[in-house]
Design brief:
With 247 residues, the protein is an alpha/beta fold. It has helices at residues 19-27, 44-48, 65-77, 93-99, 121-126, 143-151, 184-193, 209-217, 234-245, and strands spanning 5-8, 30-33, 37-41, 59-62, 87-90, 109-112, 131-137, 154-165, 178-181, 203-207, 222-226. Strand 1 (5-8), helix 1 and strand 2 (30-33) form a beta-alpha-beta unit.
């Protein structure tokens, strides 16, 4: 069956030159964007119940833009002034660059990994006698605590925000040829919003092993997978599917 409509379970790209725009124009598709999940910050009261004293930590580990936003949001709400001497350990360049929204980059000690926390192991060990704080979501990939524990550093997790299922009730009678998912939470949101969802002719596109596993567990038929050696991005995987199955 031809693909004419696609729903991507993420926010719409800020740029009109995104790969989705090119895909839409090339194949004359209707592509809509709708986050199936969203992030909500915990209140200062909820964070205080964790009994974490921010002044105990000279080092902050930042793994995402959300972690950056909610660390500075909650410290402001709790009227804690983050010292200029604080050191920041950013998982990637993108996270470090985003940090500039809150701190004067050239005046801070910022350490940057290429893609993961593992890249910073040598730097962590330079400060192994100090304490590290990891601002995080309520759900944390096991690989992150495993990595930090293996390094032998003294670290504490601070859940400051949570992932919440978005209300999609307005989509109940709207149908798309392809639904695109990027996380297990997106699959969970689909069934929380539509417990009686039946796939029928709807194609499911899943990005990443965890998403594929969640879709399998939900007994969904996965028609499009990414990344793969010949389709490293989701747009490339969708385009390949369209080319092989007709427009």
């Amino acid at each position: 069956m031809k693909v004419k409509t696609i729903l991507v379970s993420q926010p719409e790209p800020a740029s009109d030159k995104s790969p989705y725009s090119r895909l839409q124009e090339k194949h004359k598709l209707k592509i809509d964007f709708r986050p199936f999940i969203h992030v909500e910050g915990l209140s200062a009261k909820e964070v205080r119940m964790q009994k974490i004293n921010f002044s105990d930590f000279d080092n902050i580990i930042l793994t995402s833009r959300n972690a950056v936003d909610h660390f500075f949001r909650i410290t402001e709400e709790m009227r804690y002034k983050v010292p200029d001497s604080t050191k920041y350990f950013c998982q990637s360049e993108a996270v470090a660059f985003y940090l500039q929204k809150y701190v004067v980059y050239r005046k801070r000690k910022i350490y940057v990994g290429e893609k993961s926390i593992n890249d910073l192991e040598a730097v962590f060990k330079k400060f192994e006698k100090e304490k590290f704080l990891l601002p995080s979501s309520d759900v944390l990939k096991p690989s992150i605590p495993d990595c930090l524990n293996n390094m032998g550093i003294d670290w504490t997790r601070a859940p400051l925000y949570k992932t919440v299922v978005s209300d999609l009730s307005d989509l109940r009678d709207v149908y798309y040829d392809v639904l695109v998912f990027f996380s297990p939470s997106g699959i969970e949101s689909l069934f929380k919003n539509f417990p009686d969802f039946e796939q029928n002719n709807t194609r499911i596109a899943a990005y990443g092993n965890a998403t594929v596993l969640a879709a399998d567990k939900a007994k969904l038929r996965i028609d499009i997978k990414a990344p793969t050696p010949d389709s490293p991005s989701m747009t490339m995987a969708i385009e390949k599917y369209i080319s092989n199955n007709g427009k």
